[in-house]
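Worked example 3 (structure in, sequence out).
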């Protein structure tokens, strides 16, 4: 179970229909969060996640809103974030999990359309989400004012926190996925820039670098899962897949006030892969 969160505020999660996004929504609920804006293009998956969030805790004051959102579309992102703000009045935590991966070969053979599609979601789409989250957060009161019963000290108070899901492939390479590696590296640079630009607004921005996670995006077929198990997983010191819940628990910590001195950071959650990659 995730660490308890100090402020039971509003958690907005993109890519919430499955995998890390779904696990993150459930982790926030188990940590004590009570209001959720769940975003994804997959409306059926969103409804499943909504049900799982509501079932994961015994609290009766859980409020879950679902919003169809194509993160590659500026209009769709603005619409979803605006609707969430209008419904919940604020956004305390924004966790950006939407992503895809296409193994299209090395750069000389990589189709331009696949490059553009990955960047439109993994980098540009994430930037669009950060942009809207920051617009909302910088105009809202500190959480110590919005939630006085949480007894947040003025030193640890924040207007909001953003967690971007990057990848270990932002820092080391894997063959045949130049667009994915490049986009995830861009997420780290964006995270650092936004952390600096909005630190005076008391908005913290951090990134997580997952390793090889047992999720629908990573394992779209039994054949790919078997290849991963036999190859990159064996380079991981722990020699196992990570679970979406293991990423989600770190996201909850980084978003909450217990991580109040952490901003512009990139946390590897990868079973030691970056420490011992070979």
């Amino acid at each position: 179970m995730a660490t308890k969160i100090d402020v039971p505020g509003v958690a907005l999660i993109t890519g919430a229909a499955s995998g890390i996004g779904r696990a993150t929504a459930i982790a926030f609920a188990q940590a004590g969060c009570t209001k959720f804006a769940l975003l994804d293009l997959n409306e059926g998956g969103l409804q499943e996640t909504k049900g799982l969030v509501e079932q994961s805790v015994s609290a009766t004051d859980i409020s879950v809103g679902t919003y169809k959102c194509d993160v590659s579309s500026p209009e769709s992102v603005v619409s979803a974030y605006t609707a969430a703000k209008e419904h919940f009045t604020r956004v305390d935590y924004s966790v950006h999990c939407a992503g895809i991966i296409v193994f299209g070969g090395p750069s000389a053979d990589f189709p331009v359309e696949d490059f553009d599609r990955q960047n439109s979601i993994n980098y540009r789409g994430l930037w669009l989400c950060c942009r809207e989250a920051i617009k909302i957060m910088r105009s809202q009161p500190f959480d110590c004012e919005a939630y006085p019963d949480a007894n947040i000290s003025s030193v640890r108070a924040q207007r909001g926190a953003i967690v971007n899901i990057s990848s270990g492939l932002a820092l080391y390479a894997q063959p045949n996925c130049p667009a994915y590696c490049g986009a995830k590296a861009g997420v780290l640079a964006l995270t650092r820039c936004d952390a600096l630009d909005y630190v005076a607004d008391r908005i913290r921005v951090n990134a997580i670098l997952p390793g090889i996670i047992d999720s629908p995006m990573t394992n779209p077929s039994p054949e790919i899962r078997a290849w991963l198990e036999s190859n990159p997983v064996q380079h991981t010191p722990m020699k196992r897949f990570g679970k979406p819940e293991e990423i989600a628990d770190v996201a909850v910590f980084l978003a909450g006030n217990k991580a109040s001195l952490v901003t512009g950071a990139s946390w590897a959650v990868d079973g030691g892969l970056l420490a011992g990659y070979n």
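Notes: Residues 10-276 form a domain with the Rossmann fold fold (CATH 3.40.50.720). The chain has one domain: 10-276.
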